[in-house]
């Protein structure tokens, strides 16, 4: 499935705007789903409408309607690289049986995958970022090419969708058409049976809402059909839908959202803050406070997951000298601009203990401190101070050319004469 090169088209929703979104929704409140879709295609935005389909459990119903109304309507499938093989087979089945003529796969940028998810496990630590690079980012240039989008969302699916209308006007002046907004679970089953539609191969196994394999689980009887998506996480949408006020539900922009600066860019942070009560044997991708590590040392050492260490002022890095190789990342807390103890910790890690992993600064990380932090071996920064973030993005950091306390052998201490300078 190749991605087509389409010329941008003007947004053609004058009619919708003139009618008023409320009036239009009132007119179509009682209309059946195919009628809504037919009107959208013929009158509201003719030739300027496309659909993104997950080819999940309910997708056949809407795609069957699309095939009846306009089989050449562009259908986009977010090929995240994380789908069940059954879903990929289902794409081919529906394409063939319905005669859909215009299906395209949208793939994530390989550079984004390499940079943000080289091990393919970002979904586990930061699903928002995983959805961002696999869905939101690749879809953005495609959405710009159309005046409107058809979605398969339904009111009954989640509390958040409980008032979903047939037509939505988005903040960027595009139209979302939701022909199935009023469909119930029973309506879906009835439509499927009436038209003898092929079922997703996993539906009978208890998967009621199907997305990427790592983030989809079986739903128990009586559960919300989407309860199996991102189970256990406070996440309901993948960020590509629009809310009712017209704004994009989760307009996630990596550069704005991430606070970890590493290798010249703000990137997704696999680590989370330590929470009290976390089981030392099951902790993963957290910076364990040094005293907590010492109190449960045996359990942490037996824990197979990636761990970090949090060093606060007053903690002695010497106490964990033998275990430093256990940590993928060591976070040094700088509680205030004037507290310089973190610099000494960083130098001990690099110079005495030859620690070669990530050393990150967090806390009061400000623009003027960063050159000094780097000199001491800190190679990652957690930055929330907005002017400092901008300075990093624009590569505007102060230069430091004189030193009272030189680091290594290349820095020259202030006030010494050439023949007295250290050479080793
Ligand atoms: S649904 Fe899961 S695997 Fe798929 S893009 Fe989102 S977080 Fe990643």
From TrEMBL:
Predominant location: cytoplasm
Task: Give me the residues that bind [4Fe-4S] cluster, please.
Answer: 130-131, 212, 215
Subcellular localization, as worded in the UniProt entry: Cytoplasm
Domain of life according to the entry: Bacteria
User: Which residues participate directly in catalysis?
Assistant: 238
What processes does the entry annotate via GO biological process terms? hydrogen sulfide biosynthetic process; sulfate assimilation, phosphoadenylyl sulfate reduction by phosphoadenylyl-sulfate reductase (thioredoxin)
Q: Does the keyword Cytoplasm apply?
A: yes
Quote the cofactor binding remark.
Binds 1 [4Fe-4S] cluster per subunit.
Question: DNA-binding: is it a keyword of this entry?
Answer: no
Q: Which residues are in the Phosphoadenosine phosphosulphate reductase domain?
A: 49-217
Return the broad EC class. Answer: oxidoreductase
An example GO CC term for this entry is: cytoplasm
Q: In which pathway does it act?
A: Sulfur metabolism; hydrogen sulfide biosynthesis; sulfite from sulfate
GO MF annotation terms: 4 iron, 4 sulfur cluster binding; adenylyl-sulfate reductase (thioredoxin) activity; metal ion binding; phosphoadenylyl-sulfate reductase (thioredoxin) activity
Its UniProt entry gives the catalysed reaction(s) as: [thioredoxin]-disulfide + sulfite + AMP + 2 H(+) = adenosine 5'-phosphosulfate + [thioredoxin]-dithiol
Cofactor(s) recorded in Swiss-Prot or TrEMBL: [4Fe-4S] cluster
User: Which Enzyme Commission numbers does its entry carry?
Assistant: 1.8.4.10
Record keywords, A-Z = Cytoplasm, Iron, Iron-sulfur, Metal-binding, Oxidoreductase
- Please give the NCBIfam families that the UniProt record associates with this protein: cysH, PRK02090.1
Q: Which family does it belong to?
A: Belongs to the PAPS reductase family. CysH subfamily.
Q: What does this protein do?
A: Catalyzes the formation of sulfite from adenosine 5'-phosphosulfate (APS) using thioredoxin as an electron donor.
- Mind telling me what this protein is named? Adenosine 5'-phosphosulfate reductase
Q: Which organism is it from?
A: Devosia equisanguinis
What gene name is listed for this protein?
A: cysH
């Amino acid at each position: 499935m190749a991605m087509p090169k389409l010329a941008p088209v003007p947004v053609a929703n004058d009619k919708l705007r003139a009618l008023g979104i409320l009036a239009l929704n009132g007119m179509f409140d009682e209309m059946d789903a195919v009628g809504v879709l037919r009107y959208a295609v013929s009158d509201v935005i003719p030739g300027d409408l496309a659909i993104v389909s997950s080819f999940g459990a309910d997708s056949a119903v809407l795609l069957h309607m699309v095939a009846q109304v306009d089989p050449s309507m562009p259908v986009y499938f977010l090929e995240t690289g994380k789908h069940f093989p059954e879903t990929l087979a289902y794409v081919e089945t529906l394409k063939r049986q319905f005669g859909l003529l215009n299906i395209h796969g949208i793939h994530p940028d390989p550079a984004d995958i390499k940079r943000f998810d080289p091990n393919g496990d970002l979904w586990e630590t930061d699903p928002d970022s995983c959805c961002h690079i696999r869905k939101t980012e690749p879809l953005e240039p495609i959405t710009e090419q159309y005046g409107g989008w058809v979605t398969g969302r339904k009111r009954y699916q989640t509390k958040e969708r409980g008032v979903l209308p047939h037509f939505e006007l988005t903040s960027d002046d595009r139209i979302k058409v939701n022909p199935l907004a009023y469909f119930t679970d029973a309506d879906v089953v009835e439509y499927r049976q009436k038209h003898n539609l092929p079922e997703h191969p996993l539906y009978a196994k208890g998967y009621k809402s199907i997305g990427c394999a790592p983030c989809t689980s079986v739903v128990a009887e009586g559960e919300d059909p989407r309860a199996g998506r991102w189970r256990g996480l406070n996440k309901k949408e993948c960020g590509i839908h629009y809310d009712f006020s017209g704004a994009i539900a989760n307009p996630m922009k990596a550069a704005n959202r991430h606070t970890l600066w590493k290798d010249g860019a703000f990137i997704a942070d696999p680590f989370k803050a330590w929470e009290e009560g976390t089981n030392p044997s099951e902790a993963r991708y957290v910076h364990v406070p040094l005293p907590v590590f010492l109190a449960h040392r045996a359990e942490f050492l037996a824990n197979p997951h990636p761990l970090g260490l949090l060093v606060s002022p007053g903690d002695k890095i010497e106490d964990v000298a033998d275990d430093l190789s256990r940590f993928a990342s060591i976070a040094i807390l700088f509680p205030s601009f004037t507290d310089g103890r973190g610099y000494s910790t960083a130098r001990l890690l690099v110079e005495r203990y030859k620690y070669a992993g990530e050393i990150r600064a967090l806390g009061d990380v400000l623009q003027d401190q960063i050159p000094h932090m780097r000199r001491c071996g800190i190679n990652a920064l957690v930055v929330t101070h907005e002017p400092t973030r901008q300075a990093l993005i624009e590569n505007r950091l102060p230069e430091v050319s004189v030193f009272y306390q030189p680091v290594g052998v290349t820095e020259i201490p202030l006030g010494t004469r050439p023949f007295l300078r250290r050479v080793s």
